[in-house]
């Protein structure tokens, strides 16, 4: 049993015993790396580039895919489509043009060449891209998919975009500047006292027996776990106060970087069972959680840690 859990809340880190009263989540301080000048970055153009990639490459293929447009990667549940590939190529070209010298770590590029991940450890700013998060939903004609983009530098996520084109949702977060959904500020809030917690967990189709065993500790009174859909949209649900937490057992940066910043900037919290903040570069002890507030994150982590 871990004696203390470190909760990363609203951009800050604190070490707190499990039994202690958790501090309230507070807005993240403005902490852009002093060596990275983003004053010339056209933020509106970034949003426009994401919308354009979806309009050009994703939405024309939604519910229009042919069998040859869909390929299995690691197995029948791990799919990629022509829309994923073309949207990532589109975003790679447009985003690097907007920020000269930047690199892109995209899901499909990493699948083709794992060394692309090395950019997360470098000094150049990095765009982290998941062109279609929720490919399985996309393939089955379900609108619950999104495009995820995060801008990071030296391991710190500075901005993120979560765009669900079929749902008409664009959520944007900037470190220290809050989070907005379609221009309206987001506040995750806290669960009502005594309420059953709605927790999205790693889908059983993507977990091994040990991960299932650990996640099963959430099947207890006061918690209602369910398999997640699109990870990006689950983070948005937390930031909107629609669900209370996640418990995820995989760490791909493109699935989590955008959503974690979105939750933090909406006043939420996150942490791993090892007592460390989640690192986008990888090497995290898993599972980890993101939640509407620090108390909820601590409760989820306490149950997950008890399985170790």
From TrEMBL:
GO molecular function: inositol monophosphate 1-phosphatase activity; metal ion binding
Reaction(s) the record says it catalyses: a myo-inositol phosphate + H2O = myo-inositol + phosphate
Gene Ontology BP annotations: inositol metabolic process; phosphatidylinositol phosphate biosynthetic process; signal transduction
Protein name in UniProt: inositol-phosphate phosphatase
Positions with biased composition (Low complexity): 13-30
Root EC class: hydrolase
Sites where the protein binds Mg(2+): 107, 130, 133, 255
E.C. numbers: 3.1.3.25
Keywords tagged on the record: Hydrolase, Magnesium, Metal-binding
InterPro entries according to UniProt: Inositol_monoP_metal-BS, Inositol_monophosphatase-like, Inositol_monophosphatase_CS
Cofactor(s) it depends on: Mg(2+)
Superkingdom classification of source: Bacteria
Disordered: annotated segments: 13-34
